[in-house]
Amino acid sequence: MKIALLAKGPSLGDYPGEGFDEVWGLNQLAKSHELDRLFVMDDLKYRMPHYDGPEFVDWLKTYPGEIITSTKYDEWPTAVEFPVEDVAHFLGLPLGIAMYNSVDYMIAYAIYTGVDEIHLFGVDCLSRTPQIDRTRVSIAVWIGAAMSRGIRVVSSKGSFSTSWTSAGACMDRAFYGYISPKRIEDLVRS
After folding, report:
1. For the chain, what is the mean pLDDT?
2. Contacts for 140-143 with beta carbons within 8 Å, 24 or more apart?
3. Cβ atoms of 122 and 15 closer than 8 Å
């Protein structure tokens, strides 16, 4: 299964709108994009009203699609609780490790559900603050976890993760420690 994972960064504009088995997005993207799964990991009752406002939270009560969230409440009939314990057990990781943002949960869930390809749009993390730096690291952990299980991860040009999800970009940066780094052109097999 090939999924598009949508976040709010500038490379969301690269999303082609088709060619994926499923499209997953977060928060307000439910209003602008047709999603198969909506991730709203902030508690719908106690935290989300402070982030995206009470109007959005009320709108979610009528959202017809699946909402994956941290805690299920009856007021949101299509909400499904994220299976955090099952995911942690499946991955063999301590509960909550590197779960610092919704994208972390989305990639972990993709691994858990057995997707083959994850295409990241809007997962850019371009500003540099301590919170964004922590977000970059945790997303990188999950990209690595996916790739280590044979899941292809593709990110948009300009995203912070392009240098390790694109073979061309990886090879352009060379191999640490080598005097004469190997070039991608030398590694192409005929």
Report:
1. 84
2. 140/164, 141/97, 141/98, 141/104, 142/98, 142/103, 142/104, 142/107, 142/108, 142/111, 143/107
3. yes
Q: Is the pLDDT of residue 169 over 90?
A: no
Give 21-59 pLDDT, tens digit per residue.
Answer: 999 999 999 999 999 999 999 888 888 766 777 888 899
- The whole-angstrom separation of Cα 139 and Cα 166 is 16
Helix 102-113 crosses helix 84-91 at what angle (to 10 degrees)? 60
CA distances from 154 to 75, 124, 151, 160 (A): 36, 12, 10, 12
Q: What is the predicted pLDDT for the residue at 78? A: 97
Give me the residue spans of the domains in the chain. Answer: 2-41+82-163
The string of DSSP codes covering 37-95 is EEEE-S-TTTTHHHHHHHHHHHHHTT--SEEEESS--TTSTTEEE--HHHHHHHHT--T
The pLDDT score that the predictor gives to residue 133 is 66
Architecture of domain 2-41+82-163: 3-Layer(aba) Sandwich (3.40)
Instruction: Using alpha carbons, list the distances in angstroms from residue 190 to 171, 172, 181.
Output: 18, 20, 20
